[in-house]
Amino acid sequence: MKGRTWRAWRPSLLLIGIMMLMATGCITNGRSMQPLKNKKTLDKKKMDSPAESTLIFGHIYRGAFYGKAYFDQLEFTQINPEKEPQWIFPGTVGTMFYCTPVTPGSVLHLAEWGYSSGNTFYYATLGIGKNDSSLDFTAKKPGLQYVGAYNHKGTKMGEGLMAGYTYAFVEEESPDELDALAKLKPLLKGTSWEAVIDARIEELSK
Question: What is the pTM of this model?
Answer without folding.
Answer: 0.81
